[in-house]
Amino acid sequence: MRSIAKIVFLVVIGFATGWFAVGNRSLAEAEAKTAVAQEAGACGRCALPDFVQLSERWRDSVVNIATENKAPKRRPGFRGNPHGGNPRGGQEFGDPFERFFGPGGPGRAMPRRSLGSGFIFDKEGFILTNNHVIENADEIHIKLNSGEEYDAILVGRDPKTDVAVLKIEADHELQAIPFGDSEALRVGEWVMAIGNPFGLDFSVTAGIVSAKGRFIGQGNYDDFIQTDAPINPGNSGGPLINMDGRVVGINTSIFSRSGGNIGIGFAIPIDLARDLIPQLQADGKVTRGWMGVMIQKVTPEIAESLGLDDAKGALVADVVDGGPADDAGIKVGDVIMTFAGNEVESSNDLPTLVAREPVGKDVPVEVMRDGSKKTLELEIGQMEDDDPVLSDDLAEDFGMSAQNLTPEIAESLGLDPETKGVIVSGVEPGTSAGDAGLRRGDVILEVNRQPVENLDAFYAKMADRKKGKSLLLLVRRGESTVFLALKPPAD
Prior knowledge:
The chain has helices spanning 2-42, 51-58, 96-101, 131-134, 270-283, 300-306, 324-328, 349-355, 392-397, 407-412, 432-436, 455-463; strands at 62-69, 112-122, 126-129, 139-143, 149-151, 153-158, 163-167, 190-195, 203-214, 224-227, 239-242, 247-254, 265-269, 289-290, 293-297, 314-319, 335-339, 342-343, 362-369, 372-379, 381-382, 400-404, 422-427, 443-447, 450-451, 471-477, 480-486. By secondary structure, the protein is of the alpha+beta class. It has three domains: 49-285, Thrombin, subunit H (Beta Barrel); 289-382, Roll (Pdz3 Domain), CATH 2.30.42.10; 392-486, PDZ domain (Pdz3 Domain), CATH 2.30.42.10.
């Protein structure tokens, strides 16, 4: 009996020990789940968002924009829309549908109509959109979600950042979307895009922030939000909204070979646009600060050769004689580390930092020179209107359109991401470009034996041609290069 009792006692003890172990493990698991739930609760943007509520809340604030250009120089779709082959646009090779099946068809001079999006940011009728949506428009028409239509006036625009402000006069108060904080955006955060893709009224797409601070070769002030929320032609100018229901970006361009979305879209940070709005409303344009230097990226190799610990800052490649930097004592070979108290992580940061400072203000500039730091005082100058001497009209004279060759595009073509040049995004048959044998996807490396690193340099070389003389182009095509002679356009 004693043996049986002992066995029963041991079994009971064993069960009790196991129960307590299981209980403790379950308790630990429950506590861990509670901690995760509390963390998710503390970060509403981490939880699955309610897109239904957001779309219903702001549907009346997003507008459809239609423009007309009564006297197009050439066929519709050859410029003006980055989804349709604009040299400054975000699409890789242009949109053949618009070029060949757009209003009027090939070669016919009919009024050009383009569609884009925008959103009301002030209940008095002020609308924010992209400059490329309304550029060169003779008439701008706004259609609200309610079906109401208005003629809009252009209040101001800034081609350098692709931002424009419009105004409509409504007989009732309009619903405006509040601005958010694009600087506070985090990679992986949910966002929603609203617009009119392909002219379809009010379409909503959703995704996450894929990256921030993207430089895609649009200009000196590139600082794009990258998102996988589908953005298609017609979405340009529409709002990118966070889960707090606030605008954090302006949908601007896509990266695509076909013209459709492939999961890479770009939006202008709303913080950048918000800083420009007061000037656009007051003066119709933006006045920027100017420093007077040419800069380049600090690569790891350059950093090592200069004795820098990290590949940071902006390397001064040239200084404008008599400019603000020259007067401040900045020299070629200096590496600008901070500007007006802000760290310069890369050369892409400096133009934006300089541009946002008021003209005439004295700011400290910290440079690295010969292995030691030196702080200089610089008075901000005023940037002159430096629109290219040559607009893309000249490229159209030859029957072609082109855009900057970005590292992403170069890589997709199997080229070294560091390759410099411009990529041909469209060629019109029967023109100088077509007769010369240029093809869409060709990369132009030189014009008249002079290298062209970007679109502005390409335009300048073409504008500097001798009248009646052909242009000699060095073109990269696939794995080889070829020279092509571009005949001058007929007067």
